[in-house]
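Input for the complex:
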Amino acid sequence: MTQPATRKHRIGGATRLFGIVGNPVTQVKTPQLMNALFEAGGIDAVCLPFDVPVNVFEPAVAGLQALGNVDGLVVTVPHKVRAMSMVDEVSDTARRVGAINVMRERPDGTWFGDMFDGAGLVLGLMRIGFEVRGKHVKQLGAGGAGAAVAHALAEAGAASIALADPQRKLPEQLAARLNRFYPDCPASVDLDPANLAGIDLLVNCSPVGMRPGDGMPAAFGAFSPALQVVDIIMTPAETPLLEHARQCGCRATNGRPMIEGQLAAFATFFGIDMPASFSCFSDEPA
Amino acid sequence: MTQPATRKHRIGGATRLFGIVGNPVTQVKTPQLMNALFEAGGIDAVCLPFDVPVNVFEPAVAGLQALGNVDGLVVTVPHKVRAMSMVDEVSDTARRVGAINVMRERPDGTWFGDMFDGAGLVLGLMRIGFEVRGKHVKQLGAGGAGAAVAHALAEAGAASIALADPQRKLPEQLAARLNRFYPDCPASVDLDPANLAGIDLLVNCSPVGMRPGDGMPAAFGAFSPALQVVDIIMTPAETPLLEHARQCGCRATNGRPMIEGQLAAFATFFGIDMPASFSCFSDEPA
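Predicted:
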């Protein structure tokens, strides 16, 4: 969808600053997405990439927080866990996941952190008509992104979550943590990644499918057409898993709804009015 | 002069960052000017306002310097003197003036500071056809901006500088400092601000003329048409002093050539290619 032409954004002395803190940052897309949002909303703010090397993380982030016109920061790899120590308070979600990917300054000058990696996926799924509540989930991959996604699915009312990851310790630890916080959503380690009996939603949070030549993350047979499939991978846009899902007649999506949902979550978190017609993918064909 | 249409600048992960450090920053024009320069040159860089409160100056600037994609900072009121302590080395000019208004990171990671407040005026004067070398100067105002301007005029080969300022200590200290560094350009305190005998260039660095109802900064009689008059005030664009100068047939200019010259100096300092056709006032009528 193409956005209506908007005034060219002019950075001036009164422009408010947001940024994404990572290392490296050359690959990030958050500035482009948030700046499109600011332009669409006629908001005098800009989002920058802030390249924060690991060895200067604390002083660099403290310096940014000390600026009078920085209102919020998005946090990406490899700083999400360490960023917990740079805020005064975190959300329950962030505390459970053990990491934040966003922080904002409150009116009293303190900083508040939250974690939207998973909430973005849940919001994105809602947006494409899939309601997580009551659904049985199978999730491949229990690393950093997987932990955030599983927590968000449990928080959104999933009926159960089966976790598969070749690094056995990861799903065990994640399942234990999920079961502590979400007793109504039993989490288990699934040693047969291809088993989809009773599953409504299949989410791939593993990196399998990113590299050329990758196959599917498990040796799946035919999917039931009722299965909803999400692969959070963005590049390539169509992984072997997604191709297989579509061939089986399933609803299938890549990480796009997750990113859209995440941007919407950022907008709410930062107090930015998001025009109803706005799409964060305005520059790309749908 | 209108610039040719350029691609819309898109901030992305690889965009390099520059900023102006001040408090407040809402009034600054450096981001607009430098961003117009970046756009005209097709350079993937952006200049931001960084609001640095006085009580967090050192950590905030250290934090910005620690970022991997911040290449340089412009420094404005009230941080120009204190910024000296945030760089590893300064130019001779900065050392003499005792302040910097610009710093850049060198390839080895150290920071280098310089002071262009005055050099901007000298460059700007050259650009409008006035050569400082050999000229006798009268300068009104010996505060922060005045100190930088006087040093630059002396450095550029002025024949003499007469300083007038109602705060008697300021011109005395500045004259002593100038005489120490530039023995070939005698600097003196002039107790009669309206006396222009033998003067080629009259520069107003005092704030008189900014406020509505202000008159001229001294009770001048008719100027010789040979006198070059500069008022570094930018708002209003035409002060009572400039009006008087034009009525007397003098060449007279406001702070515009100084800002243009300063932008050119920044570009050189930061290693930015400045298109020959570029004007930093492209959005305003000439």
